């Protein structure tokens, strides 16, 4: 069974002026891509205009690509369609013509429930041989999968609180009512949702959204109305600075990662000399690298190599890694995007550099061990907002309750939304009222509590200073090591 790896090209589909598929042009395009060293072809995705083509045209394109490729490299065909029936038909066709695997996006337009998404992919899987690779192609704005996980965390927290009789404020018991709005991941829809929740539903507080852009857009509305809002996984610093004094977040900001990464290198790995390999074309990577250097040196450590590369197109890191190899570094810090890490890790191992490897939150991604190889990520350290196998009793209780209710482990989104409910309830109790939003805001600001994701306090900019989970890859699986408190 073949897997996606390396550089995968989403192919365009050429048409003539009469909107007929140009098969000869497709053949030339296949040869062009293979000759230039790409690793896998992916026809009929969004770039391939799949939603604008009928089933027969899509079959014709798939047949042409597979035939022209002639097994020189893998071909994974996108088969997602508006109807499950059509997706299954295209999936069967792909397996019959010799494709190496398929990808399938969920039907668009309507946001699907988790059960309907499961049923959709189950039907697709049953339409092809058991060992035929099927990749799930998720566009969160269409499937609402990210939002579903956030909902799970809120639902569990509210269920636990309400089943216990609610919570006491000023001698009176209160329960929680959930009012949901789907922002589809879009700022303008988030603005409308905030206005409805504040003006029509008269909510006491808002949890979400989970993305930075929508929260940056809608946050000022919450502050203007004096309604506290907590973003769940929105890490851009502008979320709170632009949003104003009533906007908080449950996750770290990007610069805070540098602090905990520096402490991990010093306290957990015992390093005094660290090398950094970062992208100077990525603000996230370069900013984190610079902040890490500052924090590690403040702890008495030395940055013995600070090596930059020119962004995601860089494939050969030998020059930078040679400098690192000669620097005497005990640890190499890779604060880079998940898609760039596998090649870097592989080349470090191939060169036999005698140093431990560590990273930040980007490492908490199944593609890293899958593409780099389990043997290459073995023993690599990184930080995460949550660890399902944490030994912390609060984390364990949450994970067990989540597994019992949903049948699988919580992820970052569900944990941050669960945390957000707990933060609000704790603040209501300490505020002593449910009708004074300013008192509630002040109580949230003064939060000091243990949560499934660790201990949390807010700084003056309403960003959490919270515990970080140190993780290490063992047999390709993120495994909890310890916790670093702020």
Describe the 3D structure.
The structure is a single chain. The chain is 44% helix and 18% strand. With 486 residues, it is of the alpha/beta class. The protein has 3 domains: 136 residues, TIM Barrel, CATH 3.20.20; 177 residues, Response regulator (Rossmann fold, 3-Layer(aba) Sandwich); 130 residues, 3-Layer(aba) Sandwich (Rossmann fold), CATH 3.40.50. The strands form 7 sheets. It has a 4-stranded parallel β-sheet with strand order 12-11-13-14, with helices on both faces. The chain has a 3-stranded parallel β-sheet with strand order 3-4-5, covered by helices on one side. Helix 3 links the parallel strand 3 and strand 4. The model has no long low-confidence stretch (mean pLDDT 91).
List the helices and strands and how they pair.
Blueprint: E1 8-10, H1 23-35, E2 40-42, H2 55-69, E3 76-78, H3 84-96, E4 101-105, H4 114-126, E5 134-137, H5 140-143, H6 145-163, E6 167-169, E7 172-174, H7 187-199, E8 206-207, H8 212-225, E9 229-231, H9 238-243, E10 247-249, H10 254-268, E11 273-279, H11 283-298, E12 302-309, H12 318-325, E13 331-334, H13 341-350, E14 356-359, H14 367-372, H15 374-377, E15 381-384, H16 393-406, H17 412-431, H18 437-445, E16 448-451, E17 454-458, E18 464-466, E19 468-474, E20 477-484
Parallel strand pairs: 1-2, 3-4, 4-5, 8-9, 9-10, 11-12, 11-13, 13-14
Antiparallel strand pairs: 6-7, 15-19, 16-17, 17-18, 19-20
Helix pairs in contact: 1-2, 2-3, 3-4, 6-17, 7-8, 10-11, 17-18
């Amino acid at each position: 069974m073949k897997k996606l790896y390396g550089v995968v090209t989403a192919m365009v589909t050429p048409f003539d002026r009469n909107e007929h598929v140009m098969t000869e042009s497709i053949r030339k395009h296949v040869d062009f891509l293979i000759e230039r060293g790409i690793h896998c072809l992916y026809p009929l995705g969004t770039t391939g205009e799949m939603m604008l083509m009928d089933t027969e045209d899509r079959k014709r394109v798939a047949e042409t690509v597979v035939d022209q490729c002639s097994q020189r490299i893998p071909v994974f065909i996108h088969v997602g369609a508006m109807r499950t029936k059509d997706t299954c038909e295209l999936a069967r066709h792909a397996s019959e013509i010799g494709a190496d695997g398929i990808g399938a996006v969920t039907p668009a337009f309507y946001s699907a429930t988790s059960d309907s998404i499961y049923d959709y992919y189950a039907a697709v899987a049953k339409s092809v041989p058991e060992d035929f690779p099927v990749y799930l192609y998720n566009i969160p704005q269409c499937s609402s999968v990210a939002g579903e996980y956030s909902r799970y965390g809120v639902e569990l927290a509210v269920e636990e609180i309400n089943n216990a009789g609610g919570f006491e404020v000023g001698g009176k018991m209160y329960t929680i009512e959930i009012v949901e709005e789907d922002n589809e991941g879009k700022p303008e829809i988030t603005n409308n949702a905030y206005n409805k929740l504040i003006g029509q539903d008269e909510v006491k507080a808002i949890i979400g959204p989970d993305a930075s852009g929508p929260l940056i857009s809608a946050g000022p509305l919450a502050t203007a109305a004096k309604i506290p809002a907590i973003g769940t996984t929105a890490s851009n610093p502008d979320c709170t600075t632009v949003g104003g004094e009533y906007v908080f977040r449950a996750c770290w900001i990007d610069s805070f990662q540098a602090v905990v990464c520096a402490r991990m290198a010093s306290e957990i790995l015992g390093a005094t000399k660290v090398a950094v390999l970062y992208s100077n074309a990525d603000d996230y990577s370069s900013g984190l690298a610079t902040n890490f250097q500052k924090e590690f040196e403040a702890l008495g450590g030395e940055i013995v190599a600070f090596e930059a590369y020119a962004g995601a197109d860089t494939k050969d890191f030998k020059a930078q890694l040679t400098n690192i190899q000669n620097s005497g570094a005990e640890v190499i810090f890779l604060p880079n995007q998940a898609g760039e890490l596998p090649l870097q890790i592989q080349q470090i191992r191939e060169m036999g550099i005698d140093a431990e490897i560590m990273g930040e939150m980007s490492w908490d991604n199944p593609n890293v061990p899958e593409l780099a190889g389990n043997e290459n990520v073995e023993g690599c350290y990184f930080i995460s907002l949550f660890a399902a196998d944490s030994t912390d009793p609060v984390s364990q209780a949450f994970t067990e309750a989540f597994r019992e209710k949903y049948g699988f482990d919580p992820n970052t989104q569900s944990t941050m939304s669960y945390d957000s409910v707990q933060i609000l309830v704790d603040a209501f109790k300490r505020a002593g009222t449910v009708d004074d939003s300013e008192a509630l805001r002040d109580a949230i600001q003064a939060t000091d509590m243990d949560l499934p994701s660790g201990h949390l306090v807010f700084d003056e900019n309403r960003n959490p200073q919270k515990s970080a989970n140190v993780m290490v890859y063992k047999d390709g699986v993120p495994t909890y090591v310890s916790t670093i408190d702020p």
